[in-house]
Amino acid sequence: MQRIFIKGIKGGIGSTSVVANLACALRKSNVDVIAIDLDAKSDLGLHFGLKWTTTKGWSNADSFEEALTHFYKDSDGVIFLPFGDKNANLNDIKTIVENCTKLDCKLGTWMLFDCPSHIDISELALETKDILIELVTCDAICHSLIYKRLQMLQNVESNWNHFFLVNRYNAASVLEFDIYSLWQSTLPFIAPFFINLDEVIKESTAHRNVALNCAPYSVANDDFETLAGWLVSKVAF
Fold first, then answer.
1. Number of structural domains, the chain?
2. How far is C-alpha 119 from the chain's CA centre?
3. pLDDT single digits (tens) 84-100
4. CATH code at 208?
5. How far apart are CA 235 and CA 213, in angstroms?
6. Which end of the chain has less Cβ packing within 10 Å, N or C?
7. What are phi and psi of 41, to 5 degrees?
8. Is the pTM of this model over 0.90?
9. What's the number of CA atoms in the CB half-sphere (13 Å) around residue 128?
10. 168-210, pLDDT tens digit by residue?
C-alpha cells in the first residue's frame, strides 16, 4: 500500500479537488484507490457523486467496524470514506489513519488522505515510504509560509517524502511566473510541474464529478495524469 497525504499550506488552495482527481487518474491504471476525508468540511464525497444530504462518515462511528459501513464506491471504482458531521480532534484523526492502514488491501493499492491545512502532519507518525504533498499557490503569503515550513522541517525528524506542488497556476500572471521561477531555483522540494488554473474544476464539482470525467481532453486532465505518473515513478510497492 502507498499512502499519499495531501494538504494545503493554507486553507482554500484546493486539496480536496486534487485528491479526487488524482484518485480517478490513478484508478485509470486499474489499481485499487482509497480516498479518506480527514477534513471536517467533509467535501470529498461531493466530488465522487455523493449527495450533499448524505452527511454521515467515519466521525459518526463509535468503532472502526462501524466506520467500515460508511465507505462508498464511485462510478470509476474509487473507494472513499467521508469525514461525517461530528466533531473530531487530532487523536481521532490519528486513529482513523492508523486503522485505515490495517485494511486488507491488494498489493499496489493507493491510499489518499485529504488533510485539513491546520493539521500538524508530523503528529500522524508518517512512515518512510509515505508521501506528503503540500499544495501552494504562487502568491506572497504562500512564499512566506513555505520558508516557515522549511524551518520547521529542519527541527523535526521527518522521514517521509515531502513535496510542494503549485496548484491553480495562472500562466497569464507575470507575478505567478516570477514566483514559480524563484521557487524552482531555490526550493529543494518543489515538484517539477504544476496544476493549472482550469475552470473545468469548478464546473465538474457543480456536476458532483471530477474533471477527468467531465472534460477528458482538458488541461486539468493532462495535469492530473502527469501528477499520477510522477507519483508512480516515486514509489515501489
1. 1
2. 13
3. 999 999 999 999 999 99
4. 3.40.50.300
5. 26
6. C
7. -65, -25
8. yes
9. 2
10. 999 999 999 999 999 999 988 899 999 999 999 989 888 888 9
